[in-house]
Amino acid sequence: MTDIRYWIWFTQAVGYCTPKAKQLLEIYDDTEDFFKGGESEWRLSGLFSNSEINKLLSTDFSIADEIISKCNKYCYEIISIDNPYYPRCLLDIDDPPAVLYVSGMLPDVDDRLTIGVVGTRKASMYGIRTAHGFSYNLAKCGVTIISGGALGIDCSAHLGALAAEGVTVCVLGCGINYDYLRENAKMRSDITFRGAVVSEYPPDTEPYAFHFPQRNRIISAFSDGILVVEASKKSGALITVNSALEQNPDKKIFALAGPADPHFFGTNELIKDRVAKLVTDYKDIIDDFDNIYVTEELAPELNSIDEEVDVIPVKGKAPDNINGLRTNDLSEAPVHKEGLNLSEDEKKVYYSINNEPIHIDKISEITKLPVYKISSILTVLEVKKLIKCVQGRSYILY
């Protein structure tokens, strides 16, 4: 894997929301050869204009070390585009981020059903209640809720998922350390214990206006479907929809019908033009996806919502396969390995994990270790291929 400093330096020189990071991966088997090749290699690649090469030459490499130092100070994870843990769904778009900065634990957005919930910042009480209710019930069904952390619909979606003790991802249009919307600071903090706050911008980056359309491509890429709750004619939510359809014309778009009011012009037009499917209940969304199987063990609380609904959405898994373990043959399930070079705390965490998914909060309860410390230990154990994340922040043996 390439030194992550090169990718951070690359973004500082070339910028964000560019296809050139992906193009580098496609051309070079070892991208470190490109980075260390200098000006002659950069020109030979044919990817960069003269002005971009001049920017590469003039960008001080030390800026990457400063950003890494800041991330280490606040325990932010940095995931570069060549990292094996980089989401595959981002690699499918033309302009994936070269680097992701993460606070919390990025859930499995590739193999779990994800729904982006978007809409206006100036939401009506109807929109706020509906975004919260849909997100709550979807999260109870194991769906990961994706949104942008803004006021209005975004905030309600995240809070609904949190109320359900579900998993949610907040994609920001600024750095994750920037005090954006101070009133949402607690919500962002809570999200890091139930998912992740994510940005492609270094931690202290300000929220410039052009960042938000850029971040919408990440929201749409993370999401298997987009639910537009309330949107006016010029709502940024419609940019997310357009981004989703540009990335994948078959992406599922859902919308809630509203009154003949300017606040609902966008959602109503999506339905009228048959861009979006009209939904009146969260089950309409779940029913629109294939490859969903039932596992009551992972969602024992669902009966309190609707006795007929007890699904955990998993993409591309056979019905007899739950979290990678065949239910009819557990004799082949992984076992703890012996003779490992682990610290005492690492051993506590490792031996608390078995073949049934266990949430990080439960690991903390068993080991008596704080969640922030367990998060870093889990990363170490994942890198060593001793455990794997299978559902939100739940883990099993590798």
- Oligomer description: single chain
| Secondary-structure-derived class | alpha/beta
Largest sheet: 9 strands, mixed
Strand order of the largest sheet: 1-2-6-5-4-3-7-8-9
Range of strand content: 5-15%
Per the CATH scheme, the topology name of the largest domain is Rossmann fold
CA radius of gyration: 22 Å
Round the mean pLDDT to the nearest integer and report it.
Answer: 85
How many alpha or pi helices?
Answer: 16
* The first-level CATH class name of the largest domain: Alpha Beta
Unreliable stretches covering 5 or more consecutive residues: 293-312, 316-332
Q: Count the domains.
A: 3
Q: What is the architecture of the largest domain at the second tier of CATH?
A: 3-Layer(aba) Sandwich
Shape designation: globular
What share of the residues lie within helices?
25-40%
Distance between the termini: 21 Å
The total strand number stands at 16
